[in-house]
Amino acid sequence: MKVSVLGATGYAGAELLRILYSHPEAEVVHITSESHTGEKISDLYPHLRGLYDMQLESMKDIVAIGEDSDFVFIGLPHGHAMEVGRALAGKPVRIIDLGADYRFTDTSVYEAWYHVPHTHMDAERVYGLAELYREDIRDAKIIGNAGCFTTASILALAPLAKQHLIDVNTIIVDAKSGVSGAGRSAKQPNHFPELYDNFRAYNVAKHRHTPEIEQAITDLSGEKTLINFTPHLVPMSRGILATCYATLREGVTRNWLMQPMRSFMARNISSVCWGAALTRPRRMSVARISAISPGTSIRVRTGSLPFLSLIIW
User: Fold this and answer.
1) 123 and 62 share a domain?
2) Where among 90, 120, 146 does a domain terminate?
3) How many separate domains does the chain show?
4) Residues 50 and 167 in one domain
5) Active site residue 148
6) What CATH number did the domain enclosing 131 receive?
7) What is the pLDDT of residues 266-306, one digit of tens each?
8) pLDDT of 127-166, one tens digit each?
9) Distance (Å, rounded) from C-alpha 130 to C-alpha 242?
10) Where among 146, 170, 205 does a domain terminate?
């Protein structure tokens, strides 16, 4: 299986290369970077020495790259994947976009939140959260990979929304992220003196992962869903802890909750690290592995449910 990675020098692209190296059927044939064309990826990421010592190419001849690949992963900022998708339309190559261009069923939602026109509206695409849409993904031409906050939040809420155990329009997502989620480009708020010993909310009431979570919960529950989502930046390099709150449906007890949650996790998630008493997910529990650490408890006084989901990228 021949694989190419566009935008290989970003954090997502470099992490993808590390994962692909362990895949028994994946052969990486092209890696691109417009800002580091001609350089070796291993010079930029020394931990890849001996694994990938190939030179970075330009993606200007994207058709040739696509024709020489079975899969093309796109690790570019939003707005660029659509250009690749249109250029490779009609080719047998399959596309996995790590960005947002192909995540939304309704492209007007994408345009409203990302403020760029969607130029590939007719693309046959599938939302790439494999734990929920594995069968759809299996043969999909274009896969819009799920976002980071969205993965943690949707997987926490999915079994409860699907079984109608919570009021989906009372959902609050309070999520914390490491700084690598902001990307590799230098930005003053992410410099060490600004971040160390600090903690802040950002993009309050306007974070672009909000409609992505709403889309998935609407699909699962069959009810139009609007949520409150606030992300926070914490002084660690990677990882996400999402604390998701929702009001329980009348009569729902803890015993009702645990079976669907355990069943969902067992069926759909390859590695689950259950916290002690199912209440205390820790970053260290899932560091450097492909896993999710869930936990839950019920606030009897208020009839609400805090469900925690922790993932490490």
Assistant:
1) yes
2) 146
3) 2
4) no
5) yes
6) 3.40.50.720
7) 777 655 555 444 456 666 666 655 556 566 666 655 556 66
8) 999 989 999 999 999 999 999 999 989 988 998 999 999 9
9) 19
10) 146
Domain check: are 306 and 161 in the same one? yes
Cα dihedral: 107, 108, 111, 112 (round 10): -140
- Lookup: tokens for 191: 């410099």
Q: Report the half-sphere exposure of 103 (CA within 13 A, side-chain side).
A: 28
d(CA 90, CA 86): 9
Grouping H, G, I as helix, E, B as strand and the rest as coil, residue 253 is coil
Amino acid (1-letter code) at residue 35: S
Give tens-digit pLDDT for 12-60. 999 999 999 999 999 999 999 999 999 999 999 999 999 999 999 999 9
**Strand, coil or helix: what is 61?**
coil
Calpha distance 100→174 (Å, rounded): 21
For residue 10, which of 223, 187, 224, 181 has the smallest C-alpha distance? 181
Q: Provide the whole-model pTM.
A: 0.89
Q: Which domain holds residue 137?
A: 2-146
**Identity at 235, one-letter amino acid code:** P
Which residue would you say has higher pLDDT here, 68 or 195?
68
CATH classification of the domain holding 303: 3.30.360.10
Amino acid at the residue 180: S
Strand-pair category, 27-32 with 2-6: parallel
Query: In Å, how far are 131, 162, 261, 269, 272 from 264, measured between CA atoms?
Result: 9, 10, 5, 8, 11
Which is catalytic among the residues 59, 148, 165, 308? 148
106 plus 182 within the same structural domain = no
AA identity, residue 166: I
Residues 179 and 290 grouped into a single domain: yes
Please tell me whether residues 67 and 192 are part of one structural domain.
no
